[in-house]
Write a structure and sequence with these properties.
The chain is of the alpha/beta class. Helices cover about 50% and strands about 15% of the residues. The strands form 3 sheets. An 8-stranded mixed beta sheet has the order 3-2-10-9-8-1-4-7, sandwiched between helices. The longest helix is centred in the middle third of the chain and has 22 residues, at about 220-240.
Length: about 575
């Protein structure tokens, strides 16, 4: 259990008796320390707790141990009964340890720091501190506030109470004023400053929640509101730090934070704290519900706070997202059901990633295209003809190299760290320019003409009427390419080379067409060619036949193979 610690500096003044009034107590006394100890419930403390009274040489003789328990009133010049604070505290019979600690007068900066070190030396790790700031030097309140923050950082203490006995108020009862909100303001300011400087929210959360939970100042509505404020702020920063693109675009957390601008005006929160909250809210004003511009704001956030990994990742994914959103009408994938819509979005993103990431050396060579690029050949060609695509692909390529360098931990590249860091801001700016580009729509040509390529040793002219009619269902244009004769002595490498050569023949005939290839022949070459053609999105089919036997008599039979259908590989 944390040790409770009371700390107060004893002054040298002649203190008149009065009634100090706190939230829970009324105490007739000369010394604010007695009233404050009553107010904080020190009579219920334990022997593990402590009360430190910091005294100077003069305050020791004037107010700690008073000779003969008498002092001359400087105003009336009369001698009065005047018990010193030591006797007063002894009479209280407190269960905690009461200790006087000698400090310097504090007449210069060196002595001020000596006082600081003395007070700090009395604090143990994890203490719960109770400060009275009524007496002694005028700079003491500032000193204690700074010391409290210092101790919270280095000794993990909790500031439970700070008060001032306002003897100067012109009434019979003198209030004990809580100054804990000043400490909260200091904490809030420090946390907010760290947030503004680093974009990190942990300090704000810790300090706001500590203030909300311990101060007792806030109504349930205010407590709930402030708690939700910091949790939404945490959610917003987590979205950026974990690259949650969809959440950033939706901006639900940022919008919720903006809404607190109106609510905070109604809260009974000290005005300085309100100003800090409003300043944080202002940082998120540019976010709008379900807007791609939110990605721009997130990228600028990454640039400002040097979130390098997040920035490179969001840059790349933001460009893909922009393309998908901008050209959503061109999405070729079905999206009638919920599952289809989810798959459609993923397939379309993959398609645009292939468009943007295809090496320039393969762009003009359709035989190098694979997967979705081939499946959507007409759209792919139209996109590659756009005037702006070269610039976007160039920026994307440079970005992708650095993103991979960062996200793969430096294991797959040789990009210098200095380049990754120094070029980060420029990379972000390059990405942002894409958002502001005028991106013209692709002009997709009509579906290409269809062609049926017969790559076999059975030319079309020899086909039955059934087979010919079946082929016509695939395309009106039928073209023969004779299946090459394969030397049985050829090995696997030879077959691979032959397959590459034959592929070029087929693709040359198929160029500009939606091609179906009828491919039947030597099995290893057929297998190699089918793999290559299918990899390019080319449909490959085989013909199926039915063996028919006719008995001619005299132990003679006639065997024929009747065409049945084309079957896709």
């Amino acid at each position: 259990m944390a040790r409770k610690v009371f700390m107060s500096v004893l002054g040298t003044g002649f203190y008149s008796e009065c009634t100090y009034v706190g939230v829970n107590t009324r105490t007739q006394t000369r010394f604010i320390q007695e009233a404050t100890l009553n107010e904080i419930g020190a009579k219920g403390w334990t022997s593990e707790d402590s009360a430190y009274l910091f005294i100077t040489d003069r305050s020791e003789t004037d107010n700690w141990i008073v000779k003969d328990n008498c002092r001359t009133n400087p105003r009336s010049k009369e001698v009065e009964q005047y018990d010193g604070l030591q006797k007063v505290l002894d009479d209280m019979s407190l269960p905690c340890t009461v200790e006087s600690v000698r400090i310097k007068d504090g007449k210069d900066e060196n002595e001020m720091w000596d006082i600081f070190n003395t007070i700090y030396g009395c604090i143990h790790d994890g203490d719960e501190l109770y400060f009275d700031l009524t007496h002694a030097f005028r700079y003491l309140p500032m000193l204690v506030l700074v010391l409290g923050s210092y101790a919270k950082f280095l000794k993990n203490v909790k500031i439970a109470y700070i008060s001032y006995g306002n003897f100067e108020v012109q009434c019979d009862e003198k209030p004990i004023m809580s100054l804990l909100s000043l400490n909260a303001l200091l904490d809030w300011t420090s946390a907010a400053a760290a947030f503004v400087k680093t974009g990190r929210v942990s300090g704000v959360i810790e300090n706001v929640m500590a203030d909300v939970e311990s101060s007792g100042r806030y109504t349930p509505v205010e407590t709930t509101g402030l708690t939700r404020f910091v949790r939404n702020l945490e959610g917003f920063t987590n979205q950026i730090e974990t690259c949650r693109g969809r959440e950033i675009v939706a901006a639900n957390a940022a919008i919720q934070i903006q809404n607190y601008r109106k609510a905070i005006r109604k809260y009974d929160v000290p005005q300085p704290l309100k100003m800090i909250i409003v300043n944080i809210i202002d940082m998120l004003q540019e976010y709008h519900s379900d807007s791609l511009d939110n990605l721009k704001s997130a990228l600028q956030w990454c640039k400002r706070y040097q979130l390098i990994q997040q920035g490179y990742t969001l840059c790349q994914e933001s460009i893909v997202t922009l393309m998908c959103k901008k050209f959503d009408n061109y999405n070729p994938y079905p999206s009638n059901t919920r599952d289809e819509r989810r798959n459609s979005r993923k397939q379309y993103r993959d398609y645009w990633s292939s468009i943007l990431g295809l090496p320039e050396s393969k762009r003009e060579n359709e035989s190098e295209w694979r997967g979705s690029l081939v499946e959507n050949r007409a759209l792919t060609k139209a996109i590659f003809k756009l005037g702006w695509i070269d610039d976007v692909r160039g920026r994307y390529s440079q970005l992708a190299a650095k993103r991979n360098a960062v996200n793969h931990g430096g294991f797959i590249d040789n990009i210098p760290i200095s380049d990754i860091v120094s070029e980060f801001g420029k990379t972000i700016d390059n990405c942002l320019t894409i958002f502001d580009k005028e991106l013209s729509d692709p002009v997709v040509e009509d579906n290409p003409p269809k062609i049926f390529i017969n790559y076999t040793n059975h030319p079309v002219k020899d086909w039955s009427e059934e087979q010919f009619s079946a082929a016509k269902k695939y395309a009106e244009e039928l073209v023969d390419i004779p299946f090459i004769v394969i030397d049985p002595d050829k090995d696997e490498d030879d077959i691979e080379k032959i397959a590459d050569s034959e592929l070029k023949k087929i693709l040359k005939v198929a160029e500009g067409h939606d091609a179906t290839v009828h491919l039947m022949g030597e099995q290893t070459l057929s297998f190699a060619l089918i793999k290559k053609l299918q990899g390019l999105g080319v449909r490959c089919v085989a013909s199926t036949t039915k063996r028919e036997v006719k008995d001619l008599g005299d132990n003679k039979r006639e065997v024929t193979f009747r065409f049945v259908k084309f079957r896709e590989y």
